[in-house]
Design goal:
The protein has 2 helices and no strands. By secondary structure, the chain is mainly α.
Length: about 60
């Protein structure tokens, strides 16, 4: 859908519905950001494993 068509549809909605659409867009944006963050964490986990899993720092595992 082209942006112009979407804007026209938004203009036809009452203000409370526009607020709902905005909330939904914010939700989608946050969900995508969370997915990116989780993917980055998973990718870095292997690299940090040597740092996290060592005898010197074993005491911190119990916190």
């Amino acid at each position: 859908m082209q942006a112009e068509k979407l804007v026209e549809k938004l203009k036809q909605l009452p203000p409370e519905r526009v607020a709902e659409v905005e909330d939904f867009i914010d939700f989608l944006t946050q969900r995508d950001e969370r997915r990116l963050t989780q993917a980055a964490m998973q990718m870095s986990e292997h690299s940090f494993r040597r740092v996290w899993d060592n005898e010197e720092d074993a005491v911190y595992d119990e916190l």
